[in-house]
Amino acid sequence: MFTGFFVDRPIFACAIALLITFAGLISLRVLPLEEYPRINPPLITVTANYPGADAATIATTVSTPLERQINGIEDMLYMSSRSSSDGEMTLNIYFDIGTNVDLAQINVQNRINSAIIKLPSEVQRQGITVKKQASGFLEIIALHAPTEQYSDIFTSNYASLNIVDELLRTDGVSEASIIGAREYSMRLWLKPDLMAQLGVTTQDIINAVREQNADYAIGSIGQPPTSYPVELALPIVTQGRLATPSQFEEIVLRAKLDGSRV
User: Using an 8 Å Cβ cutoff, are 141 and 153 in contact?
Assistant: First the structure.
């Protein structure tokens, strides 16, 4: 009976159809649209670094305290962690579909702040990263030198300085990383026999490098308040972080009163 009403009045039915069509076209410009529905649960990734530790040590001292503190967080489905022998720990936390990812990231960060005092000092010094990201890759870009005139470490450093930052500034991109990234660094090789003769431990070398390879704020000469007027204030600039192998070779491990040093 309801359909017969429009069959008997074709002009009225056409007017209603056109009205619905125009209303849909107008709404199409203002309604939020998604090309694909969200079928994957939101993901929060927690990353921590423990230099020099093996996978078992990281799982015991880093992964376990964080998992115990984060477990049971609001709207959480499950979580999984991965500890590698290069000192990196990755903890993936999955939430219910429809969960506010920004709010979930804040909740995870608050839980981590409560557990950070239980982590090793090296992990606290390196810092813990909390990011929201998708569970899969959108695109993988390969970068190489056709003539092989540039090494892998050069291309990795070039991508880090010129490509990754541009991708992160692109709308809709929340994470961009280099798989197998290689960075310029200084590697120190230790001689156990010579260290035993000199009575130097590995921790002594670590403390010396950490103390002498750093930036310090020294201050300035003539900075107020002063007992008399000063016409010119000169800032004091120190050497800062070491950059060449010869500078690292001059790190002082031990100094004696007679002027000798290691």
Answer: no
